[in-house]
Amino acid sequence: MADQGRGPGLTTRQGHPVYDNQNTRSVGPRGPLVLEDYHYLEKITHFDRERIPERVVHARGAAAHGIFVPTGMAGDDPVTKYTRAKVFRKGTETPIFLRFSTVIHGGHSPETLRDPRGFAIKFYTEDGNWDLVGNNLKVFFIRDPLKFPDMVHAFKPDPIHNRQMMGRFFDFVSMSPEATHMITWLFSPWGIPADYRHMQGSGVNTYKLVDDEGQTVLCKFHFQPRQGIRNLTSEEASAIQARDFNHATGDLYDSIERGEFPEWDMFIQVMSDDEHPELDWDPLDVTKLWPEDQFPMLHVGHIQLNRNPADFHNEVEQVAFGTGVLVDGIDFSEDKLLQGRTFAYSDTQRYRVGPNYLQLPINAPKCPFATNQRGGQMSYHVDGAGQGANPHVNYEPSSLNGLREQERAGPPPRPFVQGHIGRQKIERTNDFKQAGERWRSFSDAERDELVTNLVGALSQCERVIQEKMVCHFMQADREYGGRVAAGLGVAMPQREAAE
Ligand code: HEM
């Protein structure tokens, strides 16, 4: 029986009792050690392997369990009009796991940095898992996945002296005009959310919803915090960082422990599934917002986080989200960035966590599942064992009671797509207009902070980079570009100062 105030007995992983956890086995009290000390060998070799590679981006994060409750849309316009996904069926409740993160720096970096915030949700639906791997800001820096490794390299610390440099960051950005809209968000107070509970979430990419007849609409997913939105000025963020660099993780964990469960309303925006030639931007372009007056936010449910992880490593570190993880009723759009992402996630997870990462409880579906996948490092169960199939049959098709294909309508056939194969840009790039609209939509305080932050960061850059950036801001809005130029002492040629 355990002593009062002391827990159950300690063992090795082999189940052997540990009777001395303070002293290694040695020849005499002064050593040397003996190799037969299995307890020490097991303990230290496991410790040596405690870390797995951290995520190449979004390494710092915090997460919680919760639920998604669809409420159906108001009036005669239910979400089921657009999608047959069971997760949206009124009256259901789906368990979720939501991981928030910062993007650029490592696993223990400060949570007060200017950075997008990850907002990744795993919905454990009755039809299998659905991952929505989003961010807090609703747009992104680039629209072609080929540019992603360069972008991340430029934003991460210098490969020689290991410091993040604004000169490298803006070197890349100044030659990627499509980033102007995202930069306008990021250097405003929206670039430092006060914590994870007071920020929005968005799927960012364009997806498709599929109805019972196989008809599709284009769709964006968004989340609005019921706690309200709160952002920080650079000064406020510095003050927090001086006393606590884990403030967002702490805020999330402590609020859930107190029983204050954070909630977000979930919305979709939809438009017909075509190219929309009437728009001066492309609905598949991830650098663009869908204006809410044209594409209203439709309420489809809410999420609540109500349980902290039992173990940070097992759940928060090893959870694996991916944009390829969709359920019936939700489909990919042709959005090139989405397609590029979809390869990257499971690829990195097979390396980062291991080939059987989907067997871990945090990643496995909660509905029945059965595959013929076998073996690989760390395999510890047979998917579907005990469901009545012949365990000798690890292949399909078979007449010997093996797993069989299910009778169900697959995803709808893709519309006929035709074009020349080649490295091509989308036609309606329109890189600056929405950045200008964003500038004009900001309050005076947000505009002042944006200019101060940009001038501060660009002051650390070469003149040629400053000029290119001012030129982009000028094309977004003359006042915007003019104020950044004035702050930097950059004189713009007349041609570039023109509308
Ligand atoms: C071509 C573009 C992109 C590529 C190639 C890419 C790739 C990656 C990779 C490799 C990871 C690490 C995953 C892991 O180790 O589990 C990751 C994490 C993440 N990415 Fe992306 N990403 C891209 C764009 C985006 C965009 C546009 C968003 C937001 C909508 C986003 C949101 C996230 C989030 C939230 C995580 C962290 C997920 C978690 O909490 O585990 N990424 N990304």
Task: Give your account of this protein's structure.
36% of the residues are buried. This protein is 26% helix and 15% strand. It folds into three domains: 8-50, Irregular (Cytochrome C Oxidase, Chain J); 61-139 and 193-359, Catalase HpII,  Chain A, domain 1, CATH 2.40.180; 433-497, no CATH class. It is an alpha+beta fold and 499 residues long. The protein has helices spanning 38-48, 148-155, 166-174, 180-186, 234-243, 247-257, 312-317, 336-352, 433-441, 444-458, 463-476, 478-488, 494-497; strands spanning 61-70, 94-102, 117-125, 128-135, 201-202, 207-210, 216-225, 263-272, 298-307, 330-332. The chain binds protoporphyrin IX containing FE. Protoporphyrin IX containing FE binds next to strand 2, strand 3, strand 4 and helix 8. Pfam families: Catalase, Catalase-rel. Its cofactor is heme. It is an enzyme of class 1 (oxidoreductase).
Please give a handful of descriptors for the protein shown.
single chain; 499 residues; alpha+beta; Cytochrome C Oxidase, Chain J; 3 domains; ten-stranded antiparallel sheet; 15% strand; globular; binds protoporphyrin IX containing FE; Catalase_core; heme; metal-binding; EC 1.11.1.6
Write down the CATH topology of the largest domain.
Catalase HpII,  Chain A, domain 1
Mean pLDDT rating: 94
Specify the CATH class of the largest domain. Mainly Beta
The profile of the biggest β sheet is: 10 strands, antiparallel
Helical residue percent? 25-40%
